[in-house]
UniProtKB/TrEMBL annotation:
Pfam families: FOLN, Kazal_2, SPARC_Ca_bdg. This is SPARC-like protein 1. Belongs to the SPARC family. The keyword Disulfide bond applies. Residues 63-120 form the Kazal-like domain. Keywords: Calcium, Disulfide bond, Extracellular matrix, Glycoprotein, Metal-binding, Secreted, Signal.
Amino acid sequence: MFKCVGCASLQSRLVGMNPVQIRAAMELYPDIRPTHRPNPCENFRCKRGKTCKMNDENKPVCVCQEPSECPTSVNDFEHVCGTDNKTYDTSCQLFATKCGLEGTKIGHRLHLDYTGSCKFILPCPESELVQFPLRMRDWLKNVLLQLYEHESMSPGFLTAKQSIRVQKIFESERCLHAGDHPVEILQQDFEKNYNMYIYPVHWQFAQMDQHPSDKFLSHSELAPLRVPLVPMEHCTSVFFQKCDADKDKLVSFKEWCSCFGIKEEDMDANLLF
Ligand SMILES: [Ca+2]
Ligand SMILES: [Ca+2]
C-alpha cells in the first residue's frame, strides 16, 4: 500500500489553513487529496481470461479480456499449446480466446494442453501406459518425502497432520529410495509396501481439488500437474483421459484412486480432510 512519508504531519498542518492554502498544499502533495480513493477493481478477482471493468452503475464486473490486450511473451517458455493444437503466445492469450468463445462447443473444449509451443507428441503405446501410474506413484511419494525433509529447515509446506503421515513413510526402513528404478522394482515395491503409497495418492488429489473442493477434479484443477508433464511424458494425456472412467469430464476421488491401483477399502474420501 502507498505510504506517504510525512503525510501525518502535513495533514496536521492543514488544520488552521484557509481554503486557498489547503488547495495549494494539496496540489503540492496530491497523494493527500481526499479524492484519492482506491480503485474498486484493484482487489476484485476475476477468473483467467477475464478482466475487471467498471459497469454503467460504476460497479466492478468481470468481462472477457481481449487477447490483444495480453502482455506479449518475453521468451519462448511462455508459449502454450491449446487442446486445439494451436500455439498461443501466452496462457493469457489462450484463456482470453477461450472466454471470447464462451457458450460455444469450441470454447468449452478449449483448454491449456501443455506448456511450450505445440509439438508432435509420440502416441502412447499400451505397454507404456501401464507403467505410467507406477512411476507417477513413486514420484508422488518422493515429492512428499522431499517436502517433509524441507519442513525441518523451513516449515510451512505440510500441516502437522500431514507431517505425521509422511513421517511414517520417511522413517520406514523398507522405503524404496528415490532413483531411476526399473518398472519391475517399482511394481514389486508397490505390492510389498502398498501402505506407503496410499497417502501420497490421496494427498496429491487434495492438493488439486481446491476450486471447488468437491472431491472431483476438473480439467483446470488437474492442469497444474498435467500441463508441465505432457511434453515430457507422452502418456500423460491418455492416462488422465482414461482415469475419467465414466467420461463425465471430471476425475472423481474413486476414479483417481483406482487409476493408481489403490484398493476400494482405501478410497475413503473422509481421510482427505
Ligand atoms: Ca474440485
Ligand atoms: Ca469421471
